[in-house]
Amino acid sequence: MDKRRVLVALSGGVDSSVCVHLLKKAGYEVGAVVLKMSPAHAQTVEDAKRAANELNVPLIVKEMEEQFQKEVVSYFVSEYQKGRTPNPCIVCNPLVKFKALIDTADEEDYDYVATGHYAKLVREGNLTYLCKGDSAARDQSYMLYRLTQRELSRLMFPLAELLKDEVREIAAQNGLSCAQKPDSQEICFIPDNDYAGYIERQYGVSSPGDFISPEGLPCGKHKGIIHYTVGQRKRLGIALGRPVFVKEIDPAANRVYLADEKDAYQKEILVSGLSMTYPGSISDGVQAQVKIRSRATPVPCRAFFEGNNLRIVFDEPQKSPAKGQSAVLYSGAVVLGGGFIQ
Questions:
Q1: pLDDT band for position 2 (50/70/90)?
Q2: pLDDT exceeding 90 applies to what percent of the chain?
Q3: Considering 131, 178, 188, 301, which one is annotated as catalytic?
Q4: Can you give the pLDDT at residue 1?
Q5: pLDDT computed for residue 185 by the predictor
Q6: How far is 50 from 53, CA to CA, in rounded Å?
């Protein structure tokens, strides 16, 4: 490979720090960039500065708060207010994070961008295939499904074949202070992970309304629809004498509909906002495997085009698909693409 300059997205955590170490060891000329997405990222910037100093690489600090607020936070809040379940990382990756990384690489004359994601890239001819990482427990390919050839062709994932314990061991062996640093929280801009509290502090309290029982009758008051997601069973604050779950959320009527376990399964879903990892990766009637949430196991399905949407029919009914979450199609280890559950 002739191109030897790589820009690493550095957060100061163990994954991105080990990326820098591995690339330098392999002989690449390495620089680093940290993206300041929100006020909650101030510590990330300081951690990245410390890591860059330890690793002896130049660091660029890029202010991204305006773009992040516009593209990610507003979407995140709006989806919950509509009774849907958003995944901010999936929206951020193509619209903010990787766009900023590649733009910075272009500005600073770097050939590739590297991140600490646990996923794999396979290059064949003019195509770059996004694949599952070797560590099934850490695989992050689901989160990256909206990346296209524009991004994938410029990326490197140095941790693709490593386990998390191996990454920490590399960091410890090389004296990196981040070796035992805890993993980052699930929602990067909400440090305490209390998303409902964040929304209410920033945008006002969500109004209480009716729970509707499986029989179709009001059966109690909910705290506001943003506090609930489809499929939720715990912390409902209601007792019907049997297990129930959130089946549907109706923002117009401000109602949360409950259902019994037997009604949790669906045979098919409709997906919009389709994104493909390479041209023609999804064909009409394709047999594939699909994940309907980030920690789900891929299950067999067939997918059919309906205009600009995709109808995904499961071989076996699946439990509680949630509006707003992503359905991601795989062919074995290869990510084909996907879209948002409607």
A1: low
A2: 86
A3: 188
A4: 44
A5: 67
A6: 5
User: Helix, strand, or coil here: 202?
Assistant: helix
Handedness of CA 231, 234, 236, 242 (dihedral sign): positive
Q: How far apart are CA 168 and CA 174, in angstroms?
A: 10
**Span between the terminal Cα atoms of the chain, in Å:** 43
Per DSSP bridges, beta strands 29-36 and 5-9 are: parallel
* Sign of the torsion angle spanned by Cα atoms 72, 75, 77, 83: negative
How many Å apart are CA 115 and CA 15, to the nearest integer? Answer: 8
| 299: its two tokens | 């299950």
Q: What is the pLDDT of residues 286-307, one digit of tens each?
A: 999 999 999 899 999 999 999 9
DSSP, residue by residue, 234-250: SS-----SS-EEEEEEE
Supply 78's token pair: 């709006």
Q: Tell me if 79 sits within 8 A of 317, measured CB to CB.
A: no
Q: Which of 92, 131, 178, 301 is catalytic?
A: 92
pLDDT in tens, 44-53: 999 999 999 9
Assess whether pLDDT exceeds 70 at residue 164. Answer: yes
* 92 catalytic residue (yes or no): yes
Let me know if 219 is a catalytic residue: no
* Residue environment code for 139-163, b if the CB has 16+ CB neighbours within 10 A, otherwise e: bbbbbbbbbbbebbbbbbbbbbebe
For residue 256, list its beta bridge partners.
Answer: 211, 249
State the average pLDDT over residues 231-236.
90
Say if CB 41 and CB 106 are below 8 A apart: no
Six token digits for residue 219: 């059966």
